[in-house]
Amino acid sequence: MINKIEALLKEIEALKAQSSEELEALRIKYLSKKGEISTLMNDFREVAAEQKREIGQKLNVLKTQAQDKINELKEKLDNSSASEETIDLTRTAYPYPIGTRHPLSIVKKEICAIFAKLGFSIAEGPEIEDDWHVFSSLNFAADHPARDMQDTFFVMHGADILLRTHTSSVQTRVMEKTQPPIRIICPGRVYRNEAISYRAHCFFHQVEALYIDRNVSFADLKQTLLFFAKEMFGAETKIRLRPSFFPFTEPSAEMDISCNLCGGKGCPFCKYTGWVEILGCGMVDPNVLRNCSIDPEIYTGYALGMGIERITNLKYQVKDLRMFSENDVRFLRQFEAAT
Ligand code: DAH
To answer: Which uninterrupted H or E stretch holds 169?
Structure first.
């Protein structure tokens, strides 16, 4: 029996397992109820009394060694995926999906960067506003339709708190606190009570620009607009100004650029006119300056405002406005290169 035990000890010492199946087979072979060691334990009953002590001790050693060996092999198998031999440190990493900048953020950044070249700095204001900053200070008549419930989201009825319908409110916020020269660009989100469709949403984004100083003229505005259009849409871009009306500017204009798809020849996108509208602008109305304690006898200025979605659509031909707020990564990933 002693020989048998010694032989088993040697055998166990040399055990190897390549897989958990192999390991389980070994466990059954040596340690299960009908395994080799249990069989020896059964035979132990027949051992002569004077040998019991010596053989008993050896059997116990065999059992613990077998147990330890199986545990050791199991641990090795568990760690083998991380063991040094299996890691190839020279392999290239798995591609890790990284986020992309939102197309509206890309375009907003670009617009701000163009105006920064002309010395404009960024100003921001609250999205939850009051009637004074959004309408009254900007020369909207008390019965102007823009104040209507149809367009404006009122946050609290009767409490004069509303969601701003345009970023022109930031003009007032800055002019109230700062004397000219003022040269600011105000990007931000605005809200209007519109039925949501491919061409309208209840929120969208605008960038407002304001320049107030001595002797600012319409010619300055025109030059700024031309510079912006060329920087944004390419050096060959042309601009045209059409007379328009805004309560806060006088005179007011809307600016078109030559269609950047057909180069002005006429296509379905520009409805065969060769021109697409991109922004509103004008000379700041003296009433607005007065409302903000700036003397219109000394200072003049221009303002302009544009929709970021509109500019983005022109640059990237996004057909449906709703894509901008749906968070569909298949859409957003297409802007990876522009980020
Ligand atoms: N606030 C106007 C709007 O939301 C856009 C605008 C037009 C802004 C003319 C201006 C401006 O600063 O001069 O439609």
So the answer is: helix 169-177
Rounded-to-5 percentages of helix, strand, coil across the chain: 45, 20, 35
Query: Distance between CA atoms of 137 and 139, rounded to whole angstroms?
Result: 5
pTM score of the predicted model = 0.73
Whether the Cβ atoms of residue 262 and residue 274 lie closer than 8 Å to each other = yes
Nearest CA-CA partner of 246 in 296, 320, 171, 331: 171
Which residue owns the Cα nearest ligand 1 atom 8?
305
pLDDT of 82 reads: 57
Distance 28 CA to ligand 1 centre (A): 83
Å from CA of 249 to ligand 1 middle: 9
- For residue 168 and ligand 1, the question of a CB distance below 6 A is answered with yes
DSSP summary character for residue 130: E
The band of 84, judged by pLDDT with boundaries at 50, 70 and 90, is low
Is pLDDT above 70 for 83? no
Tell me the two tokens of residue 231: 């920087």
- Among the atoms of ligand 1, which is closest to the Cα of residue 284? 13
Q: Is 80 exceeded by the pLDDT of residue 201?
A: yes
* Six token digits for residue 323: 């894509």
Amino acid, res. 279? L
Separation of 192 CA from ligand 1 center, angstroms? 14
- Nearest-CA residue for ligand 1 atom 6 is 305
Does residue 282's CB lie within 6 angstroms of at least one atom of ligand 1? Answer: yes
pLDDT above 90: residue 273: yes
Amino acid at 311: I
